[in-house]
Design goal:
Order of helices and strands: EHEEHEHEHEEEEHE
Bound molecules: NADP nicotinamide-adenine-dinucleotide phosphate
Strand order of the largest sheet: 3-2-1-4-5-6-10-8
Number of helices: 5
Shape: globular
Low-confidence stretches: none
Strand content: 15-25%
């Protein structure tokens, strides 16, 4: 398949590119500073804080799917980048008639309200007692601004008319790829507290062949 990887130089992004190339896909990598990409990958430089829409459209044109692991490398300098960048990606996809997009959000985002969804559920249905009353509220207190941006990002996708899927992992680790992880539609994974970045990338690629994940939030954890 012809795939466009956004944030291709990030933690998950690098695994996405490597695994897609190894799987024989034709990969275009979008990054603000493309570097150290595997041979054969077409690189397109786009800073999504102030996107060059022509360059972004050229990276997306003709793609079967866009996979994005965009997020703030630096919480201050990159604040709001996930929603801003995703809005630009969605606009470019709509203009280029590319339909499928898979992005990374985060497990604690479900109960975060946004204007289009003012009354979200109080708890994610997959969370057990510990996550409901301690883990998720604690991480939301620490990363509230970023989770608000991820909730906005999810809303942009819900409003896009595209064939979107949101992956919501818990804590990411740099452990090697296992290919063994649990997933669930529209809920977090009970007792799933972490997952390797490599496995999140593996699952994002697998979901391209899983039409049941279209327009769904998907929980993943080891
Ligand atoms: N950390 C966790 O435990 C955790 C848990 C659950 C969910 N998540 C979510 O998963 C996301 C991805 O995780 P990760 O570890 O892969 O993140 P990461 O390594 O920080 O990668 C973020 C990517 O976004 C890119 N980026 C940031 N600002 C950009 C801009 N203005 N223009 C273009 N690209 C830009 C970065 O580019 P550069 O390579 O140029 O810096 C990098 O490639 C996180 O952002 C977070 O929302 C994280």
């Amino acid at each position: 398949m012809k795939l466009t990887m956004v944030a291709a130089t990030g933690g998950i992004g690098r695994h996405l590119v490597e695994q897609a190339v190894a799987g024989g896909h034709d990969v275009t990598a979008v990054a603000r500073r493309p570097r150290d990409l595997p041979d054969g990958v077409r690189a397109v430089a786009v800073d999504l804080a102030r996107p060059d829409m022509r360059a972004l459209a050229s990276a997306i044109r003709g793609a079967d799917a866009v996979l994005s692991a965009l997020g703030p490398r630096n919480p201050r300098a990159d604040a709001g980048i996930t929603s801003r960048g995703t809005r630009a990606i969605v606009t470019a996809m709509q203009a280029e008639h590319v339909r499928r997009i898979i992005i990374v959000s985060a497990a604690p985002v479900g109960p975060v309200a946004v204007p289009g969804r003012p009354k979200p559920p109080r708890h994610d249905p997959g969370d057990g007692i510990f996550m409901r009353y301690l883990g998720a509220p604690l991480t939301r207190a620490m990363f509230g601004r970023h989770y608000a941006d991820l909730a906005m990002t999810e809303q942009i996708l819900r409003d896009s008319g595209l064939e979107w899927t949101v992956s919501r992992p818990p804590k990411l680790t740099d452990k090697p790829l296992t290919g063994r992880y649990r997933t669930a539609l529209n809920r977090n994974i009970r007792g799933g507290f972490s997952v390797p970045r490599a496995d999140v990338a593996h699952h994002m690629l697998a979901m391209m062949d899983q039409p049941e994940t279209i327009k769904q939030i998907v929980g993943i954890a080891s």
